[in-house]
Design a protein that fits this description.
This protein is α/β, with parallel strands linked by helices. It contains nine helices and 16 strands. The chain has helices at residues 15-21, 57-67, 99-109, 128-131, 179-188, 207-214, 229-239, 271-274, 301-310, and strands spanning 25-26, 30-32, 43-50, 72-80, 83-91, 117-124, 139-140, 145-148, 163-166, 197-201, 219-224, 247-251, 262-268, 285-297, 313-321, 324-331.
């Protein structure tokens, strides 16, 4: 397994930032504007921001509000042992030279710990439109499961039970590089999916739905509230030879009961998104059903496990990856 600090990642917490600051996501290398090829300068200003170690959600909110004032060209994010780092690219002259101090002032005014470091530098504009692929390499996320882009599948050393998930980078969350996606995939490997029906809540790119099929599930229904996932979801089904009779996408603006019951529910979402849904999961889960849940911070684990119990589940296994946690729970009887 590669070191988790080596790969570029796109964090779902920054989707609101990318929606206002950028207009297209080519994760995990860079978020790029579609007008990228027509930028008017030969040089960019790179703003490098290092978050303090630990949870970064509040700092991401602050950063999103700050960069919404400017027109961006690209965003790269990586996790290191010291904490999360972002590199934001702007056309030269777009952001003020005092941007680092402005960001630190805003953090102080918000009562947050200071950013570890903020620097700016001028860099030559590179042809990321062709070159970003070098950053998207195969990732082994568990003993059996690999995630790879279409152009890297042949580089994986496969054994008899290797499962390769071929994922095309796109606007949907779920390229296999983020810690929560890796957690869900490794937890799914511990669940007997043979012949089971699965509900994938917040399916995004469809990576978890595809994994379930390749691990033996009979069929999967993926639900998401973002219509932008449809094209990427369909592309990834085709890349993995998964038929539309095996995996179905349902786009819903609000949760409502989906035809079930399902044997397994898998959900990789932020806690503020899945906690309101937890009480509704038993309504669509079979009597002996299993819940696979990720997307919450390790420090939130007691709160999440308590909510899982109140919703009628018993946690049977949990795991973590960097600052993130995940669990497997079974529906309780009586």
């Amino acid at each position: 397994m590669i070191s988790r600090g080596e790969g570029w990642v796109f964090n779902r917490n920054l989707e609101h930032l990318s929606g206002r600051f950028f207009t297209s996501v080519l994760a995990p290398a860079l978020v790029l504007t579609p007008e990228f090829a027509t930028v008017t300068t030969d040089r960019w200003t790179k703003l490098r921001i290092c978050a303090p170690k630990g949870p970064t959600e509040a700092h991401e909110e602050l950063l999103a509000a700050f960069v919404a004032q400017f027109e961006g060209c690209g965003l790269a994010e990586t996790d290191t042992h010291e904490g999360r780092e972002w590199q934001l690219y702007f056309e030269e002259g777009e952001i003020p030279p005092e941007a680092p101090q402005l960001l630190q002032n805003r953090a102080r005014e918000a009562g947050l710990a200071p950013f570890r470091d903020i620097t700016t530098e001028t860099v030559e504009r590179e042809n990321w439109h062709d070159g970003w692929r070098q950053y998207f390499k195969p990732v082994q996320v568990s003993r059996r499961i690999w995630v790879a882009p279409p152009w890297e599948t042949e580089s994986i050393h496969k054994v008899a039970d290797t499962v390769v998930l071929v994922i095309e980078p796109g606007m949907a969350f779920g390229t296999g590089t983020h810690a929560t996606t890796q957690l869900c995939l490794s937890l799914l490997e511990t669940v007997d999916l043979a012949g089971r029906s699965v509900l994938d809540v917040g399916t995004g790119s469809g990576i978890l739905a595809i994994a379930c099929i390749k691990l033996g599930a009979k069929d999967v229904v993926g639900v998401d509230n973002d219509p932008d996932v449809e094209e990427n979801f369909g592309d990834n089904l085709r890349l993995n030879s998964v038929g539309i009779d095996q995996a179905e996408l349902q786009v819903k603006s609000e949760w409502d009961e989906t035809a079930g019951p399902f044997d397994v529910i898998v959900c990789n979402m932020l806690s503020r998104e899945f906690l309101p849904l937890l009480p509704k999961f038993p309504d669509v889960l079979a009597r002996n059903g299993v819940l696979v849940l990720s997307g919450f911070l390790k420090e939130e684990q007691p709160e999440v496990e308590s909510a899982v119990k109140v919703a009628g589940f018993e946690t049977v296994h949990h795991s973590d990856n960097l600052e993130w946690a995940g669990l497997v729970a079974r529906r309780r009887h009586g």
